[in-house]
Amino acid sequence: MSVVTNTTTIGAIEAPSRRNTELALLAFAVVIPVFAYLNVGLAMDGKVPAGMLGYGLGLALLAAVAHLVVRKWAPYADPLLLPLATLLNGMGLVLIWRLDQSPRLIATSMRRYGTFSPDAPSQMMYSAIGIAMFVGVLLLLKDHRVLQRYTYISMVVSLILLLLPLVPGLGADVFGAKIWIRIGGFSIQPGEFAKLVLAVFFSGYLMVKRDALALASRRFMGLYLPRGRDLGPILTIWAVSLLILVFENDLGTSLLFFGIFVIMLYVATERTSWIVMGLLMAVAGAAVVGSTASHVKSRVAAWLDPFGCLETATDQNMLNACDQMTQVLMSFGSGGILGTGLGQGNSDLIQFAANSDFIFATVGEELGLAGVMVFLLLYGLIVERGVRTALAARDPFGKLLAMGLSGAFALQIFVVAGGVMGLIPLTGMTMPFLAYGGSSVIANWALIGILIRISDTARRPAPAPAPSPDAEMTQVVRP
Amino acid sequence: MNKPLRRVAIFCGLLILALLLRDNWVQFVRADELTSHPKNTRVRIERYANERGNIIVDGKPITGSVDSKDEYFKYKRTYTDGPMWAPVTGYASQAYDANQIEKIEDGILTGNDDRLFFDRTLAMFTGEKKKGGDVVTTLSGAAQKAAYKGLGNNTGAVVAIEPSTGKILALASTPSYDPSSFAGYSGKDEKAWVALEKDKNKPKQNRAIREIYPPGSVFKVVTAAAALEAGKVTDINAATETPEGWKIPLSTVPMKNHSGGCANASLNEALRISCNSVFAKLGDDVGRDKMVEMAEKFGFNAEQFTPVRSAASVYDKQMDRGGNALSSIGQFNTATTPLQMAMVTAAIANDGKLMKPYMVDKLVAPNLDVIKQNDPEEMSRPVSPENAQKLQQMMENVVSKGTGGNADLNMDGVKVGGKTGTAQHGEKNAKRPYAWFISYAKTDQGSPVAVAVIVEDSEGTNREDISGGGLAAPIAKDVMKAVLKSRG
Q1: N or C, which end of chain A is more exposed by having fewer CB within 10 Å?
Q2: B interface mutation test: which of A112, A423, A454 has the most B CBs within 10 A?
Q3: DSSP class of residue B190?
């Protein structure tokens, strides 16, 4: 482990705070979605959308609050994270609002439920709660190292969160995946929060155990195998992720948890053997589940040959999966290089999940290859700033936590975007900030909050050395 | 801990890179394939997103668009006299794609054609609604009506052409269908479509250009043309050396005639009473290769594009002498579309010059600018003017004194030429024969119309009474009359 050096771009000592840079970038992050909103309104109705002023002011207000809090309570934080998250959240609101206007989705909803309620207003509310969460994290968490104390509590909490959807009466089965719980009028996806809590647990656990895991091992066939008692928690995680997959039908979440764990193990122990083991275990788990769960089977079939499987589908589930996949692919393909323009595409043909799981298809169709690449790079930038924060962090816990959170973020992007673009089988997760859904927005704002807290600690100038009473005395004694 | 951190950072970078590459693959490399994929509803959504342009006959649209009050396809196609015009327009259905002119000129009709780019851009600035352009056809409403009415409940087809230009004046096919009945995508439309698909009378088949039939005796005019062109006959009134009971080459079967007086009959007389033996022998004298050459000059063995594609008529290039002799009277495996026989007639009426048949006169932009004007185009010259006139003389003889009397218009200054045909088909000719009639009308200013009529199955008619002269000729007469009348 190295102490902070000046070779990192985030200088540790006497670094400028960059708060004004953040403010300028935030201005862009608000103006761009406002223009996008205007664009959708003009394209769809030929007039300036009525809610434009309110929307713009709302987004600006949220951004301003977040910025002021960062300025006051995390003055040395990374200046890019907040603007990037604001921009993505703002664009997500525009895309959801745009899909709200779709006569097709309205008609489908009317046919199915007899009512239609737009999602953009609730997403706006979730965004506000998300920013509140962000502010809360910064206010309550003065130092991220405090989280170390809650290592084992985190483990319990994350397990409870993950298993909540299986509790009868609380869990809600929505479109085949049991990943929601319903409390009052709200549905919550506890998995999104479990992601954060698990990262805390992993960081705390690995920080303590990393030497044991790295050194107390036997060499076997060129690999360093750990002792059984160190292996225990790892196997537990593997088993839990398989259980999630089997009982909750949530391929994405289990992939994500296992991925984070392997990455953090590797970072903590610096042993490549963990990666090999992790991959082997992932392959074994995937093979077992893939050959038994029909849910996974249809996803794989839809991934391998979406158009072909429309003819060969053996049941309605598989047919739906394949149909969805072809619709998403055609949505991307029809966008081409520059896209049809916001509000002018037909991504609503994907039907009910168009604004949640498949919102990236709207980006693909209406903003085209160019737009999708911009979005991917924006996400990439968030990950990159997170990794930089990990590199700059001075304590191993902070390093592990920052790495865990940004790794989780990167994996989620890959799993979702790769799924909708047909690179890997579709797993049904949501694009952070972009997709409709309260849990996702709130949890990701909390994630950004924690990263900002760690980066603030990492970049904070070292406190001036306390004046030593001895110094005076040595000066007195002169030859 | 920093070394593995950097490696993981690279790994995350690779994940994003993989996504970028995949995105380029989907949105750049496969974009065209996915955009135009048959499963991609966007093509149809786009087709009906705006008011579609119209197909025009005699200055009046025979199609229309109505607001379908639907969230997928904004407009729905309607058709005026749908069954009558279906062989011309084709259909445009929200559920079942489109065909014929509706499909071929889709770009103009939807307004998405590149040639309408300027128009579209201008409309964008003036704030006008996007609208499709029109397709103006060469058809004549009166001729089409006469043809469709004439066919009535019979199965059959009529094609009328203006010989001097190749303009198609009538294109009728029965039984027909109403394209309006499945223009939408509701359950009702599906029912109508399935019923049409299952109908054993094949109402969706465009018999005028897509079905090939044995031509029977009407093919004799081609054989006559070949004999004249090859110099086998110079004087049409001179006796040919054809004994009654002339044997088909490579067999011992004598050629059977349906009427008396065919022994050594002259070409003129042989055509008038439709002697099989004379034409079979002439075809044999001319030889297979010359016969093929003549048939192909008239358009056989090739698809025609009007711009709707027709089936290729057949005159076999490989058959033996016996086959050639039988083919010369329109039997064996000779087969032709009604369009092809109309072309033969038109070429003869036009003094030997065959004009390329077409039915789209011009394409018009929404602002009435002409985007494309189709001009008459010469396709070939199958016979010399002198021989064409001899053929005309013989065909006029058929109408005035022969089997084609039913087509005589009895109008001053109008000469009518024609040829009847009764084509046998089926195993051992067991099926009910097809009744053919080809004819043209001619005035001092040239020929305004040439018609081919086939009546495929004439229920209620005794088998003995099925004949080109009896069934098909009156229809041809009505069509010719309609054209002459509309010319004033």
Answers
A1: C
A2: A423
A3: H
